Amino acid sequence: MRALFIKEFQELKRDRRTLAMIIMLPLLLLLVFGYAANFSVDHINVKVIGPQASSTVSYLKSLPGADKFNFVADTSAPATPTQAQKLLRSPSGDVVVIPKAKAGTLSQRVDVYLNGAKLFTAQSAKADLVQMQANDMRAQLKQLSSAATQAQQSAQGLRTNPTQAAQAAKEQSQKLQALAKQAQETNTNWIKVEFNPDLKTSWVMIPGLIGLVMAVIGTLITSIGMVREREAGTLEQLAVMPIKARSIIAGKISPYFMLAIVDMSAVALAGVYLFDIPFNGQLWLFALAGLLFLGVVLGLGVLISTVSQTTAQAVQMAIMTIIPQTLLSGLVFPLESMATWVRCIGYLLPLTWFVQVSRGVMLNGSNAAQLWLPLSIMALQCVLLFGAATARLARSLRSI
């Protein structure tokens, strides 16, 4: 038993990658869940549009609980629902406010439009806005109550014109009663949720799960392709063949690329028809994003395959790339709720950008002009990963 104990430790010592994963993975998961596992969003972007935008922003900032919102006034934008939907289709579109009155409670002064495609952001914003409305009502009730009391006292003490004072007191009492009646009502029609009116979790999760499925299949299966050649001893045969490294990679990944396209189509169709997920955008844009993302994950799989010595190592490294993408891409936890340094890591992951495009196309109906940034980043990642994989494979073939 002692000999087996020593033997296992020696094998672990030789397999440094497995040892590093055993030691680092628990710490990595602890850090990720500690800094990223948070469903509450504390920073929400709010754009106020229309000629009254500046004064409305000043009013909103004065309300208790407004510190969670980042208000931006745009007096040049038309104050229309169409413009609000257009702004919400951008990746940074969280909340749009349209002023409608200069007096009254919060619900009487503004109409609010939420981006339902950002589920947790919309839920947090709606809860905070309802609380701000309640606080605003309480403040106005207190002011009206004080004004009514003063008016009644004036009516009792005023001898020259008691009728006028009594009338003022009556008006204040009527305002107080009207506001009290409104406070008892729970009407939230002034808050409108776009793209996901019922805030369904499945509508937000499934567009992102399409990318996760492609990431698992593309990275995991492709990562063992070149390793099998090395384990079977056929890598030497590839080295002496008159073909370049990029041609070898293209030939190796082509079957996986076609299978991944079939999987992507099947999952997308299942999401639309089985879970009633809307598809409001352009099909060609979704297909382009899918092809770019497939290029990224296949390139990552090939790169892993070129640096791994065994199938077990390739699978371990592939899983190590899938776990952070699942947790830090905004698929499960909102990026806005993560610590800044964790969010920066999330922005380096390809699934983060595919989730933005997938939700943007399927739910928001966004166009290419609104999604050019994530598309460009995925294209850049695809080029970099395939370039690195080609260079690594060429060096490996030369060393044989």
UniProtKB/TrEMBL annotation:
Membrane topology per record: Multi-pass membrane protein
GO CC aspect terms: plasma membrane
Keywords: Cell membrane, Coiled coil, Membrane, Transmembrane, Transmembrane helix, Transport
Pfam families membership: ABC2_membrane_3
InterPro entries named among the record's database cross-references: ABC-2_transporter_component, ABC2_TM, ABC2_TM_bact-type
GO MF, any single term: ABC-type transporter activity
Segments forming a coiled coil: 134-189
Residues in ABC transmembrane type-2 domain copies: 156-396
Location of the protein in the cell: Cell membrane
Residues that span the membrane, as ranges: 20-37, 203-227, 256-275, 281-305, 326-349, 369-394
Major subcellular site: membrane
PANTHER family per UniProt: MEMBRANE COMPONENT OF ABC TRANSPORTER YHHJ-RELATED, MULTIDRUG ABC TRANSPORTER PERMEASE YBHS-RELATED
Family, similarity comment: Belongs to the ABC-2 integral membrane protein family.
Entry protein name: ABC transmembrane type-2 domain-containing protein
Taxonomic path: Bacteria, Bacillati, Actinomycetota, Actinomycetes, Actinomycetales
